[in-house]
Amino acid sequence: MSKVQSLDKEKYEERLYDLTYEATNRCIQCGYCLPVCPTYDSMESESHSPRGRINLVKMAAEGKINILDDLAEPIELCLGCRACEVACPVNVPYGEIYEGALEVINKQKEEKKATKEIKSNKILDMTLNQVFPYKKRLRTIGNFTWFYQNSGLNKILRKSGVMEKVSKPMAEFEKVLPQIEAPSRRYKFNHIYEPLGEKKMSVAFFPGCIMDSVMSKINRLTIELLQKCGCEVWIPKNSTCCGALHAHQGKISKAKELAEENIQAFEDMEVQYIINNAGGCGAMLYEYDKLLKNDPLWNERAKKFVKKSKDITEVLNMLGSLPFEKEWEGLITYQDSCHLRNVQGVIEAPRKLLHSIPGATYIEMRDSHLCCASGGIYNLIHYDESMKILDKKMKYAVNTNAKTIVTTNPGCLLQMKLGIERNNDASKNVKAYHLIEILAEVCGIK
Ligand code: SF4
Ligand code: SF4
Questions:
Q1: CA 307, CA 203: separation in Å to the nearest integer?
Q2: Per-residue pLDDT at 5 exceeds 90
């Protein structure tokens, strides 16, 4: 362990507060969280377990270890899947501890970057600050990617091996990126889509950033499925990225800014629910009140937003049986989105929908509740660690004999697609889908 500086009283108390010291004291060291932690399983060390990480945060708060030298690596290698929080018998708020630690680590790194003691990741910082919060920029990227896929440029670049040289993880994910829909088929912002037939409900749809940019087909299918189930669907004018990627990089003030923009964008809509179709984004929206807890005015507005925020699977179940027109053949298995399951507590709703699909047989995958190691951009930043966890998951997926793997989050979907490519037994005949793609297909929506 490195040498630790002592601080004056005020700074010491600030550090205790920032590192959620009170919360770390609630851990009774029982270890019930260890079996659900994918990084403890793959890295086999206490410091990469929830209990170990909580202990390290506690020691950092007490000034016994150094934040950047001793705490940063174990915290940054955490997937943020929050399975440990659900497993904990005494309700230790791991998410709060983790995000507090990330923020402190990020602040110290920013200070070191300013004095050039450490290098900044300019591409990551630029993407988070200058791309994700801007809808038009994201749609331009989506349009360019569509052109790239349809002009043959992708084949030329793959053949040249340039991408592999720039970034192996990026090159791997580029190969499994779904075919992007033509820009002409995009839905409109600031628009209300009418229900088909009798109106059962008015809802707003949260389009997100990645979903709106490179997976806009899934968003369009979501809107059309809701219309077909009797919903009037409001699309906001000014929504933005949910801020999850920023929060998981410790950029909490930017995450708060984005949360406020989103709350404002949906505030005046006369709808029963604000629906999203991405588990990771949904979890962020679901916790906007916690994120804005220190600002009483925004906290009240956030609480109203959170009350209306729902995953698409919950709302589809409320609308009764779906208007099926076709069958889906064979076995289907499901990989939970950690943030849908562990943060939003949505476990049965997607399974119930899968069970209801005509012609299909649902089979549960071993450890479907454990993270696939997508983790936002964890799989790009910590590629080797992520692939170790993914390859184990794919063995369990293959053991089900299902030819269809379903998930409910864009990151998990890409991760499943990559996992299939990496597994010889799966690569020829298994496919991964977002749940909405399958439901739309069997309901006759193209
Ligand atoms: S959030 Fe997930 S990866 Fe991180 S400590 Fe908890 S179980 Fe492990
Ligand atoms: S976080 Fe909870 S489950 Fe894990 S060791 Fe602490 S008290 Fe036990």
A1: 13
A2: no
| Pairing status of strand 191-193 against strand 231-235 | antiparallel
Burial status of residue 393 (CB atoms within 10 A of its CB: 0-12, 13-18, 19 or more): buried
Residue 53 beta carbon below 6 angstroms from any ligand 2 atom: no
Tell me which ligand sits closest to the C-alpha of residue 35.
1
- Does pTM surpass 0.90? yes
Q: How far is the CA of 116 from the centre of ligand 1 (A)?
A: 32
* Residue nearest atom 5 of ligand 1, based on CA coordinates: 50
Q: Which residue matches tokens 């998930």? A: 407
Report the 10 Å Cβ neighbour count for 93.
18
Residues 298, 281: Cα–Cα separation, whole Å: 19
Q: Specify the ligand 1 atom closest to the Cα of 79.
A: 3
| Residue 305, C-beta contacts closer than 8 angstroms, at least 6 positions apart | 262, 263, 266, 267, 274, 285, 288, 289
Any atom of ligand 1 within 6 Å of the Cβ of 94: yes
Quote the ligand 1 centre to 82 CA distance (angstroms). Answer: 5
Q: For ligand 2, atom 6, name the residue with the nearest CA.
A: 27
Mean pLDDT of 294-306: 96
Closest-CA residue to 281 (of 349, 221, 211, 342) = 211
For 52, 132, 214, the CA distances from 353, given in Å and listed in that order, are 38, 31, 25
> Tokens 């950092």 sit at which residue?
60
